[in-house]
Amino acid sequence: MAADSKATGAYAAAGVDIAAGERAVDLMKRHVARTRRPEQVTDASGFAGLFRLDTGRYKDPVLATSTDGVGTKVLLAQKLDRHDTIGIDLVGMVVDDLVVSGAEPLFMTDYIACGSVVPERIAEIVGGIAEGCHQAGCSLIGGETAEHPGAMGPEEYDLAGAGTGVVEGDAILGPDRVREGDAVIAMASSGPHSNGYSLIRRIVDTAGLDLKAHPPELGAELGEVLLTPTRIYAKDCVALTGAVEVHAYSHITGGGLAANLSRSLPGHLDAVLDRSTWTPAPVFGLLAEKGGVSREDMEATFNMSVGMVAVVAAQDAERALEVLSERGVPAWRLGTVTPGTGTAHLNGDHPGA
């Protein structure tokens, strides 16, 4: 939060606490420091984040950018009064969009709007953002915390972020690289990630679910499972691109697996996917059962345990699975690219369905 030199007691009386904002900045500094990359340049004024692009590494550097939020998952974090992981979700939503183009994430900025600045809570949120940046290998080079009394309640907040990455001009991934016979590789999600939480909250409310309960099929507290942070694939995707012939990625977010993967296919090819190759995590079954949600609606809303998809050359399928396994990412052969009309199709049933 930038200090306002013109702020007076009248501003505090209106609900804006400059001192709390300054304390929040002090508390978050240690979190931000651990994300620093060598290309980062110090701006003593603090008004902007500076980052030197190492053009010596690239013949034709192309910058990629993405911006996102975490949707209504923030309401669940607020309800459970747990704020240390929601920032990881924010970073995941941003950087895992960036890597779809083949870009390496370089840096992020964040924006937090709140009804009242509680320094310790803001520091927790930023700590999560810093942890996400650490997992992604990018710097958190700036941000803003805005206090909006009257527009938001004292316990309410929302957050958004923007990220920038770089990719070699002749190495940009996408539909134009996809070929018939390519292998479709799935990477497991950690749960719903940051999508479908309006439906999740509706199911929790209408079914009267206790967020503190421990459903036997989950083996953990329901609220804890629903707050599980987004898996960040950025470093893994960058490593995979360096190890095998990757043609495209698809970040599986709102709209589900088929809709998102279709965006990464050319108009003359399809992806035929086999449901029998994986079993969705128990949380998805619980949500479907308690909410009376059809499989069609579940698959159109949630990632159903597939958080990222790689389309790789057929001859590299096994090596791709080895690379991901070595990096601790659960992955499997999900399907194949065939002639078609630019659509991903899900066939068959999940084991035990």
Task: Describe, in plain words, how this protein is organized in 3D.
With 353 residues, the chain is an alpha+beta fold. The protein folds into two domains: 148 residues, PurM-like, N-terminal domain (60s Ribosomal Protein L30, Chain: A, 2-Layer Sandwich), CATH 3.30.1330.10; 173 residues, PurM-like C-terminal domain (Phosphoribosyl-aminoimidazole Synthetase, Chain A, domain 2, Alpha-Beta Complex). It contains twelve helices and twelve strands. The strands form three sheets. The protein has a six-stranded mixed β-sheet. A four-stranded mixed β-sheet has the order 3-6-4-5, covered by helices on one side. A two-stranded antiparallel ribbon has the order 1-2. Helix 2 runs parallel beside helix 5. The chain starts with 8 loop residues before the first helix and ends in a 6-residue tail after the last strand.
Radius of gyration: 21 Å
| Largest β-sheet summary | 6 strands, mixed
Low-confidence sequence ranges: 1-7
Architecture per CATH nomenclature, i.e. the level-2 architecture of the largest domain:
Alpha-Beta Complex
How confident is the prediction overall: mean pLDDT?
92
Please tell me the total number of domains: 2
CATH class of the largest domain: Alpha Beta
- Which structural class do you get from the secondary structure elements? alpha+beta
Helical fraction equals 25-40%
Question: Total number of β-strand segments?
Answer: 12
Q: CATH superfamily assignment of the largest domain?
A: PurM-like C-terminal domain
Oligomeric state: single chain
Q: Assign an overall shape.
A: flat
Numbering strands along the chain, what is their spatial order in the largest sheet?
A: 8-10-7-11-9-12
InterPro entries: PurM-like_C_dom, PurM-like_C_sf, PurM-like_N, PurM-like_N_sf, PurM_cligase
Enzyme class: ligase
Catalytic activity: 2-formamido-N(1)-(5-O-phospho-beta-D-ribosyl)acetamidine + ATP = 5-amino-1-(5-phospho-beta-D-ribosyl)imidazole + ADP + phosphate + H(+)
Domain PurM-like N-terminal: 61-167
